[in-house]
Design brief:
By secondary structure, the chain is of the alpha+beta class. The chain folds into 3 domains: 153 residues, Nuclear Transport Factor 2, Chain: A (Roll); 83 residues; 100 residues, Tetratricopeptide repeat domain (Serine Threonine Protein Phosphatase 5, Tetratricopeptide repeat, Alpha Horseshoe), CATH 1.25.40. Strand 2 and strand 3 form a beta hairpin. The longest helix has 25 residues.
Length: 389
């Protein structure tokens, strides 16, 4: 059994994200668009039930156990556990979203019989996350979700569950299913099983010791890089963290699915250049304008000293999604950095009008970065006008 005190970072990230569904009858060519929009609408109304109802558990578990050699008792027990938890999963995502936040459909790509839907959700202090869902229709024409990719941790949900199933009792046979395509000896897979057990038990010393005995080819797999990053965070050791994320960056810097995993590392190292390259890679992957991603790009451009680019990106974010407050603040900060005080005031006024609230003077006057702005005639005139209202 999995150590009860241990909560996998992967599973936390995925089960707190959208496990989505509801049944919607097939009525026209926009069935996938309509279905995912209706699901997200219910999330935004505070109900998680629709998130759970459309998940095709049978199809999901088929993916989990495909090419996975585990004991029948483990398979049955794990399957029952996933089925029992289904109804709670929608509620979890609603609870994870902070007050005033909302989920949003970014893009739906439809090939007629199947589709993928990209959804952004707000995780409060954890920022924004993205899931790309695999959608199909069942025999009755209902839209079903069979799997999804979580960009926060770089795992497909079926792969995260596969890892969780293996950790019930890792064996040389079962761990082979975690690295499909890898060719190793029985001895190496036995050592790999010990590494997975150490990961499960949060035995950091044993994890690193075991990892060192694996072949370079196995150590360089995407799974081992991601697990090493997770363990490095558990360790709270700065050197281990830097080594793990540096290696992930060096080996997978062209993989858009690990961009959000790498961003914190890039920012902690002050490497805004790599952060911007990664964000552009993710933007290309999304193939759709997303305001929250544009805000991140604007902030990063500002960190690089590219105030004009930061302004353009923030303004684009506002035009795409005027309901996103952080877009206005990104634009205000870019204008302030460029000493474009008139534009900063105009954007602040737009924010107040859009959200029907007044920005407290402390927001500007208690922060040194706004010093020149606060001393400007434009700011003083704006505040005087507000006093007259």
């Amino acid at each position: 059994m999995i150590n009860s005190k241990f909560r996998f970072s992967i599973i936390i990230a995925t089960t707190l994200a959208v496990l989505f569904g509801a049944d919607f009858a097939l009525s026209d060519e926009w069935v996938f668009d309509d279905a995912i929009e209706a699901i997200v609408d219910q999330v935004n109304e505070g109900s998680g039930q629709a998130l759970s109802d459309a998940v095709d558990i049978d199809a999901l578990l088929d993916r989990v156990f495909e090419n996975l050699n585990v004991d029948a008792r483990v398979k049955n027990g794990f399957s029952q556990k996933i089925r029992r938890s289904k109804d709670q999963l929608g509620t979890n995502i609603v609870r994870a979203m902070r007050d005033g936040s909302y989920a949003r459909v970014i893009n739906v790509e439809n090939d007629g019989e199947t589709a993928t839907a990209l959804v952004r959700y707000d995780l409060g202090g954890r920022g924004f996350g993205y899931h790309k869902y695999d959608l199909v229709t069942d025999e009755a024409g209902n839209v079903r979700i069979v799997d999804w990719l979580d960009y926060l941790d770089g795992f497909r949900y079926s792969d995260a569950l596969k890892l969780s199933a293996v950790t019930f009792g890792p064996t040389a046979e079962s761990v082979q299913g975690l690295v499909p395509g890898h060719q190793g000896s029985d001895e190496e897979y036995a050592r790999f099983a010990e590494v997975i057990a150490a990961y499960r038990d949060q035995n950091i010393k044993a994890f690193y010791a075991g990892s060192a005995t694996l072949t370079r080819k196995l150590r360089q797999t995407r799974l081992m890089h991601l697990l090493t990053c997770l363990v490095s965070r558990m360790s709270r050791e700065k050197n281990l963290y830097n080594d793990a994320y540096r290696d992930l960056s060096n080996n997978f810097n062209d993989d858009p699915t690990v961009v959000l995993t790498l961003l914190s590392y890039y920012y902690s190292k002050g490497d805004s250049d790599k952060a911007m390259v990664s964000l552009r890679l993710l933007s290309d992957e999304f193939d759709a304008g997303d305001a929250a991603l544009l805000v991140l790009m604007s902030r990063t451009a500002l960190g690089l000293g590219n105030g004009d680019e930061a302004t353009l990106l923030a303004d684009e974010a506002i035009s795409i999604e005027p309901e996103l407050e952080t877009a206005y603040w990104a634009a205000i900060d870019a204008h302030v950095r460029l000493n474009h005080h008139s534009f900063a005031v105009m954007t602040a006024k737009s924010l107040e009008d859009q959200f029907e609230k007044s920005i407290e003077t402390e927001r500007f006057e208690s922060n040194s970065m706004y010093g020149n702005f606060v001393r400007s005639s434009q700011y003083k005139q704006w505040q005087a006008e507000k006093q007259l209202k």
